[in-house]
Amino acid sequence: MLLQVLALRLVVVMEFTICKRKVDLTREKVEEVLEKLIPETFKGKAKYYIEYKGAKYPVKQVISAVLGIPKDSFATSQACKILRALGFEVKELRRSAWP
């Protein structure tokens, strides 16, 4: 008797507008980029991040890397909104953790 197991995977594609352009994005695409991305150190006003495999990634670094746009061309609130919509938990550094 042969059993076949089919793994169904639901991929949700979400559309966002950022920097006056519409982009389609998936959580899987973000994770694919995170696999190769080295987290930046937190400096300046950067205090929002997502955790992936134990590392903390500033939200603007993530969106910049995924979409190939400069970090100064969009707001932190936009990055947070996109990442939350894709199912990531956006966290805030505690003041004691700031460099």
Characterization of this structure:
By secondary structure, the protein is α+β, with helices and mostly antiparallel strands. It has one domain. The protein has helices at 27-34, 59-67, 76-85; strands spanning 14-18, 21-25, 48-52, 55-58, 91-92. The strands form 2 sheets. A 3-stranded antiparallel beta sheet has the order 4-3-5. The protein has a two-stranded antiparallel sheet with strand order 1-2. A hairpin with a 2-residue loop joins strand 3 (48-52) and strand 4 (55-58).
Provide tags for this entry.
3 helices, 5 strands, three-stranded antiparallel β-sheet, two-stranded antiparallel sheet, 99 residues, alpha+beta
Short characterization:
The chain is an alpha+beta fold and 99 residues long. The protein has helices spanning 27-34, 59-67, 76-85, and strands at 14-18, 21-25, 48-52, 55-58, 91-92.
Distance between the termini: 61 Å
The description of the largest β-sheet is: 3 strands, antiparallel
Please give the domain count. 1
Q: Point out poorly predicted stretches.
A: none
Tally of contiguous helical segments: 3
Radius of gyration, CA atoms, in whole angstroms: 16 Å
Widest sheet: strand ordering: 4-3-5
| Overall spatial form | globular
Structural class by helix and strand composition? alpha+beta
Helix amount: 25-40%
Question: What is the average of the pLDDT values?
Answer: 87
N-to-C order of helices and strands: EEHEEHHE
Give me the count of strands: 5
Q: Beta-strand level of the residues, as a percent range?
A: 15-25%
